[in-house]
Amino acid sequence: MIKFKLAIFTMFMVCTQVIYSQTKTVTGYVADETGAPLPGVSVLVSGTSTGTSTDFDGRYSIDVDDSTAQLVFSFIGMEDQTVTVGQRTEITITMIGSAEALDEVVVVGYGSQSRAEVTGAIASVDAEEITALPVTNAEQALQGRAAGVSVINSGSPGVSPVVRIRGLGTVGNNNPLYVIDGVITGGLSGINPDDIESINVLKDASTTAVYGSRGSNGVIMVTTKKGRSGKAQLSFSAYAGAQTINNRYSVLNTDEYLQYVSEAFNFVPLRDTSYYTQETNWQDKIFTTGIMQNYDLGVSGGNENSNYRFSGGYLSQEGAVINTKFERYSFRANSDFTFGKLKIGESMSVAFNKQNPELSSGGRSLIEHAIKMAPYFPVYNENNLGGYQGPSSPIDGQDAENPVRVQSITNAVNKNTSIIGNIFAQYEIIEGLVFKTQVGLDYFTFGNNSFTPAYNDDSEGTGTGQLTYANIIKNTGTGQTVLWTNSLNYQKTFGENHNFEFLLLSERTETTYEQINANSRNAISNEVEQLSNESSNLSSSLTQTNRIGYLGRMNYNYAGKYIAAASIRRDASSRFGENNRWGWFPSFALGWNIAREDFMADTDISNLKLRGSWGVTGNDNIGDYQYSSTLISDFLYPINGNAAVGTTSNGLANPDLKWEETTMINIGLDFGFWNDRFTGSLEFYNNSSDDLLMQRPTPTSLGFNSGFVTENVGEVVTTGFEINLGYNDYEGDFTWSANLNLGTSSNEVKSLGGLESIEGAYFENGNISRVSVGEPLYYFYGLVADGIYQNQAEVDAVFTANPSQVTVQPGDIRFKDTNGDGDITSADREVIGNPYPDLTWGLNLSANYKNFDATLFFSGIQGNDLYNTNIYDLQGMPRIFNSGTAVLDRWTPTNPSNSVPRAGGAPQNNSISSYFVEDGSFTRLKNLTIGYTLPSDIFGANSTVSKFRIYLSGQNLITISDYSGLDPEIGNNTTSQFEYGVDRGNYPQPMSFLLGLQLSF
């Protein structure tokens, strides 16, 4: 008995010693197939919440309590690996690419899919590409990153770019739909780019039709960063630098200007000669060096049952034009929690934006004033009310305004608060069947306020630039969209190869927008910046839009080889009357993953997939309540010779309004060779939009205030090709990659419902842009310039039907008589340009050598035209203004120029014509970044620093273009599509240089 007790005691002591000895720390190294370290690999003790992740050098450290413990290594795009610890204290792992080379997960409408099973056209941009450029708006980072996506930026801080997916498809709103973590929003200005994990651009009906009424212009899906299982990680990034505009128009100096106005207009300014010693370059006065700085801090972590990430950021961007600035404070909280089969979570961001915008005056941009202002004026004059100096028309013969005063004297501030987020809960009812409910919110407030004090730019004469009272403007408003989505998703594999996914979904959206506009004057004081009843105006508006939709979708694949997808959505919108409120939006797609066939097993082809899709999407992007007749309450009636305020019908009702529909066809081919070292894709698309929602002019005799009625008329067809090519070399100390994307787009108007044309973009007594049947949307329309008349015989040879006319003389622009009637009239106008490019492209080159890294990013567009109204200011010479130096070589009887007409010539010289149209193609070195990452061991063995990277970056360093303007990147930041490609002195893109830091703990 004693021996038995002794044996039991001995066994107990041995087991205790074994258990004690198994509590230990395991360290190791994780690499990919090439031996390169893999940072961010999740390392988890199986069956527990204990976890960590690898640092930037691929190293990890974790405590285990049992020699039988298993470590699970997981990383996106790699196969999970599970190893038993045993007696080892150091474990090295090589992660292998997943069996399906393209099994990365991409976000699609209401879910996600393996890349290998995607049958639609989706372009993906990851977090590294998004943050590679110091942008204030994530849309800017899309430029050149995705084939078929056109992004035209503005240099003005805080101004959103113009984004078009696969060109134009409608005469109305062509903006894409934005979805952030499942919440439909109006754009990406309310989100910090550093919080974005990926952006997926949905371009065809197979991917966009699930959004039914909203997907006709493409969808931009944003997924924000989430926490991962493992120990908490802290990240910090910052950059600071400067941006400037170096380009200038060459304009006349004081001596040249005085000689020019004397010879060309027989005018001598009546100023004291002391003025003529001044030499002011007004462009140098409005352009400056702006400081830009950005700081982001984030913390993330989690375990098997919960994940979290919290972040905050601050951005300050001073513009390269004086007194322009943008500031943003942003905060984000993402988290989710799992309780058995129940998972709940939220995603929420708050942003506070403040913008000091670029201003204009008298319908002229700041640059236009800078071009036209006489160079002999000083910027400041303390004797003038307001302290600035400008012209007096009787004395100086002109009415340009001091651009420094225009931009500086007015205190203009735009403030915006944005809240975007969602709360969701999902429950697995049975294996594979998940119910999910989500409530999303897009809420914003805005306040656009300005105060302009009284001023007089010239107290010596009748100041042309003057304001006899202080002007106060306060516009405020709120917008709110609440989205409630409920879905059932079922995934099931039958047998071994038949994989099904079914989705049923209902969705309700309610959008409310409210605005108050007020302004008043103060003729007594410049010290009070508040509204009063003096010459005041007040208005307000409230609109509400409701939508409801139901969706059914089925995805199927057989062994990953043969793929099919189909969806049907039914939507209703309150923007249509009861007659046609509902619409059907179907789609289907097929794919064949040829690379997975047995006969492809021993080839170098790692990916080869053929796919095609067809579907219908909808568009309800019109104003509210246009199906009914609304009232306007400030209509003026002439009663007894006096104007009496009354109420009338605002416009003609159309109860038969219905959905504008776009039918999309897409054919694509994806390919990869040598284990996807070389990859590519080819796309062809054909989008046909009909029942276009257009405003048709109504006869004045009907007596309606608006003069338009919205109808479903017209058809537009858009076609194009897209190419993506990539090469990746990840072997050895030196690795590099190159990725090229190209996209083409062309459109043609097939019908306008009986209308001959629609015109817009008014400039100097004419319209620049036009829409008509048989032509592309918003083309430039005008006279065709054909040199300069050198003598009277050349004039007479053109005006054969009107030989007695004397307005057009030698020295004027010669225009083609396109209809051959012997006269030059508006009937001779024709297509003179197309502002939308034939080709957009981007090229990204990256390389790494040990701890050094470098990226080189080019973007560009080809085949577009720009209408440069600045040429009118520089060479038009309609009356006395400063001009470009080209006017020194203008046509005179003794100087027969064939490029610059005579001064003060015929009005036709400045008609809308090809004389002002230029090639807008450009190639731009968008970004160059060189970085160095310090080795982790430099901080010591026990350091918590996992990454320390410093970098130097430059943006917009080189631009190659034949365009004579300051910047060929001209889009349209107004609501009018007709303004696209019209340069009215647009804010140029600045060149910037930045020094940055990235830290991880």
Distance between the termini: 59 Å
How many whole angstroms does the radius of gyration measure? 33 Å
State the assembly state of the protein chains: single chain
Using the alpha-carbon principal axes, give the shape.
globular
Low-confidence stretches: 1-22
Helix content: under 10%
Main beta-sheet strand count, sense and barrel state: 22 strands, antiparallel, barrel
How many alpha or pi helices?
10
User: What is the arithmetic mean of pLDDT?
Assistant: 87
Q: How many β-strand stretches?
A: 54
The assigned structural class equals mainly beta
Percent strand = over 45%
In short:
With 1001 residues, this protein is mainly beta.
Write up what this structure looks like.
- The protein has 1001 residues and is mainly beta.
- Helix content is 8%, strand content 48%.
- The protein contains 10 helices and 54 strands.
- Mean pLDDT is 87; it is low at 1-22.
What are the defining features of this structure?
1001 residues, 54 strands, disordered N terminus, mainly beta, five-stranded mixed β-sheet, 8% helix, 48% strand, single chain
